[in-house]
Amino acid sequence: MADFYNEMLDAAGLARPHYREFAAWLARTPAQRIVQKRKEAELAFHRVGITFTVYGEKDGTERLIPFDIVPRVIPADEWRMLEAGLRQRVRALNLFLDDIYHGQRILEAGVLPRELVLYNEQYRPQMRGVDLPGGIYAHIAGIDVVRAGAGEYVVLEDNLRVPSGVSYMLENRKMMMRLFPELFAQQSIAPVEHYPDVLLENLRSVAPTGIENPTAALLTPGAYNSAYYEHAFLAQQMGIELVEGQDLCVRNGNVYMRTTRGLQRVHVIYRRIDDDFLDPLAFRGDSMLGVPGLFDACRNGTVTLANAVGTGVADDKAVYPYVPDMIRFYMDEQPILANVPTWRLRDPQDCAYALAHLSELVVKEVHGAGGYGMLIGPAATQAELAEFRARIIAEPARYIAQPTLALSTCPTFVEAGLAPRHVDLRPYVLSGREIRIVPGGLTRVALRDGSLVVNSSQGGGTKDTWILE
Amino acid sequence: MLCRTASDLYWLSRHIERVDNTARLLDLAHRTSLLPERLGTRRAGTGAWERALEALDLAEAYAERHGAIDADRVLQFLIHDPENPSSIFAAVRAARESGRAQRGAITGEMYQSINSTWLRLREMDFEQIAADGPTAFFDWVKRRSGAFRGVTIGTMGRDEGYEFLRLGTFIERADFGVRLLDTNFDLPGEQAASEDGAAAEYYRMSAMLQALSAFETFRKIYRDTLTPARVAELVILRADMPRSLASCSSALLTVLERLRGGRRAEIVRLAGVLAAETRYGRIDEILADGLREYLTRYLERLYRLGDEIDLEFFSATDVIAA
């Protein structure tokens, strides 16, 4: 394990400066108390009902995402750099989206291949020429950041469609403060509790122009969606209605919700439904979750969808390698946060390299998400490698490859006691009239020994994330 | 408020109230089944369970599934049968589903209350409940239902959602009051003339009052002997008895007037009729005209009110709100 950057301990096994307080607390706290507090946390999460549904399991079993009590701590100077890098990146991504649905300057300039964008499944030609308030497409972005090698931060993935997980950031904090108030009394940890307020302000700031007191609503696929808890939680925290498709309708070009007092106008919809299911008239006709006419209303500017339709093209893994170029192209700045080096298998040279080094690489499907459809070379069996090789040869353009990163680790409670486990970080970047980032984000941890996959659907857990002030 | 939210909240509190009432009804059946056999008006032992099934309109459904009346099987059917949509198990599950769907519209404490009830109930098995004696279980159910209402009163904002929760509670409670009286009330017959008959009548009346948590209330109000007419008056007409038809009807009227914001509507008129009848009725007239007929008429009106609530609030209209 010596090869991985340990968030808490240095090479000599001593706590790094920003972990010193915590390490001292850990050393003087009786093991018995920690065991008891961990149990208490689990019970409370069950009672509060912070669960998620696992697809494909019998009767949609509700499960807890395991919560680990060792926090992920980030010192102030590192966070300042991260924050600047995230702002820069998300600004560039929004500029890119506005551009490819308007003048397409970046394609004219040949910065990235035309067909990669225009023939991308996630590109929505229906959005061409549609002007959005503030030119913002990705109002809520979840940028997955990891630390590799000697501890440098790199962006692994941009999530610009309906990124989830922010409720865990908030609940984890609440839980830590309840279990170990003394930790918060001893040091200055940046608060995150105001996130719903910032989100509401952000949503209202992108309402159609001329609306004095806009009404926002959160559109959910329903109680059986895996992230339903989060939808209900955020709607409640913001004091807005949690609507399903059946609760909305379009009349005279405006969007309304059906209330006990008749139809009530809605101006901004924070939608947690994928593009395909939003409107059976515009996208998938068999969608029972959407609202007929919603997309037209959005194109005509009577309602704002957050995020906008068609953002998926910018977080596509085939487009990802070009994000640093977007920053240079639109902003004339050098990227503050680096990408992970990526081989684009659509390119025959890259493909040949990847096939020759398959057992060292991570291969991802360009449209995949949630840790599904991915190969981790060093952990794969011969049969899995052979199967993936065949799939790549059949359709190279569907894949990218990246080196297997030596992801940083953070001490985590497992059955055998405290052990290092790999972590990532998902900060949430809100874009509206201005860009706001609540300090920190969601730290996910791969609980299985040696595993690099942090997704909750693949046995990942979460930790509270502290930005030390 | 969204029509769907209003409907979910209404059913959430109806189910909570139903669970409470089912526990009360079974508690009553359990108590009366302990009467000596020779005193029963029907076959002793099974008679009490038959009445319980009839009160819930479940006699047929039970017979189809289990055949002859058997105390343990009736209990299991009404307490713990996930296939029986009226069982306590199924009603708690339904309440918890509504609560989960609307967890954004209720407070965290309310959701935790219903969720922990569900998690606990899911872990229980019927053998254990029966072995511990069902009374302990009924008490637990009543406590959990009471806890939910308490947390609701103590934490929920006084908004439309709160009124829909109250609406569900009182309509379900009134419905139960009628059913309980209808199936457990016997006017004094010949057997009451004998000493044994009088004792049995007293036992049944007091068991019914206990099921309604109204035995002490009866004593305080009347300071007199337990007669069927007084019991009927207490359960139908007394506004100072919180589970009486009068209390439920007047609460329904208040809630509906608030929800309609003072506008005249058929739904308010219907509730007004129920409230006026129970407020100004006289028990001697009701008994002279026939208690059963009175209760049947009340229940019909209550059903109509339920249908109107559905139309008025839960079915979408195309009228754009001002």
Produce a short descriptive summary:
The complex is a heterodimer of chains A (469) and B (322). Chain A is an alpha+beta fold.
Distance between the termini of chain B: 14 Å
Helix content of chain B: over 70%
Q: Count all strands of chain A and give the number.
A: 23
Give the C-alpha Rg of chain A: 22 Å
Number of alpha- plus pi-helical segments of chain A: 13
The helix/strand class of chain A is: alpha+beta
Show unreliable segments of chain A: none
Radius of gyration of chain B: 20 Å
End-to-end Cα distance of chain A, whole Å, is 30 Å
Largest sheet of chain B: none
Given as residue ranges, the uncertain stretches of chain B (5+ residues, pLDDT < 50) are none
Question: Count of DSSP helices of chain B?
Answer: 16
The percent range for strand residues of chain B is under 5%
Question: Helicity of chain A, in percent?
Answer: 25-40%
Main beta sheet of chain A: 5 strands, mixed
Strand fraction of chain A: 15-25%
Mean pLDDT of chain B: 90
Report on the architecture of this protein.
Chain A is α+β, with helices and mostly antiparallel strands and 469 residues long. Chain A has helices at 20-28, 31-48, 76-100, 105-108, 114-118, 166-179, 181-186, 195-205, 228-238, 294-299, 323-331, 348-356, 382-394; strands spanning 51-53, 62-64, 67-74, 140-148, 152-159, 216-219, 241-243, 248-251, 254-259, 262-265, 268-271, 304-306, 338-339, 343-344, 361-365, 374-376, 399-403, 409-414, 417-426, 428-431, 435-437, 442-446, 460-467. In chain A, helix 3 packs across helix 11. The longest helix of chain A is centred in the first third of the chain and has 25 residues, at 76-100. The two termini of chain A are 30 Å apart. Chain B has 322 residues and is mainly alpha-helical. Chain B is globular and about 70 Å long. The chains are: A alpha+beta (469), B mainly alpha (322).
